[in-house]
Amino acid sequence: MKLSRINRGGVDGPVPRLVVVKPDQGRVVDLVSAEKLRLMRKGATSAGALLRALGLFPGSMAQAISTGSAFLESAAETVAATGDDASIEFSNVEWIAAVDPPMLRDCFAFVAHLEAYYRGVGQEISPVHYRQPGYYKGTNARCFGHEARIPWPHYSDFVDYECEIGFVVGRECHNVDPDEAGKAIFGLTIFNDYSARDCQTDELTMSMGPTKCKDFANGIGPWVTTIDEFDDLSALEMTVRINDKECGRGISSGMQWLPEELLAYISQGGVVQPGDVFGSGTVGNGCGLESGVRVKPGDVIALEISGIGVLRQVLGQKEERGWRPIPRERNVI
After folding, report:
1. CA–CA separation, 40 vs 81, rounded Å?
2. What is the CATH number of domain 104-318?
3. Is the pTM of this model over 0.90?
């Protein structure tokens, strides 16, 4: 099953709705509308049916996933009963981030990308990357969906794209092993880990991890493909196109750490929640820093991963104003 979120008009403005996506038919099924119709046909009032439908299918993908197998079972039943009567053509859809993750993490699993990145900034790759997975925690407040306009922060002249697999967690995990972790992956999406490269190198020397170089945007979409639709997670083809021109290509078999190993590692000592998203890290040759492509405002970035789809977004104009700290002398008291 393919699932996503869209904005629908409401009395007080747009409201998020969960949808089942039918890419081959170019349409989505609004689960709340479909369930409301199904219940009304069984005798429920309009108000009662809407209340029940919103309880089953909240606007939050993370909340829906947290209800366990009941979510997918209910979605399948609803679509089978009244899906045709609650369909919306792609041309009338306003996509938003397919998942609203309680926590967003990004890993460093593709060694080819890491080695190229360190060469590009004139540094040696840390040998720790070969001994254990690594990840950082990103903001979940700046997640953008399919066809979105991506903000270009005022403090950067070098915004870069990064083509990654986004793994969506389906159940709570704490101190799990890889076998357990593999059973906890709900589905896969496409993750564009946008980076402000001219901020990144300086920030990482502060030993606090990335901050302003990552805070401005994360692309998540166009939808989530549930894990049961994949036979081999090591054979996913990953392609980057800028303004319809191919600029990078890779395959998921290049991951140094398997998805279940990444999730198991993340869960050690902490808690991973339903709806959390963790990125694979950038596939080799999956960013402009590696391929020599410098994107600019107005460019259309399309990331394609087999079995999922195409996440297409456009870079907005650079923000005109904002505050920057003024360098100062060391203050010793």
Report:
1. 12
2. 3.90.850.10
3. yes
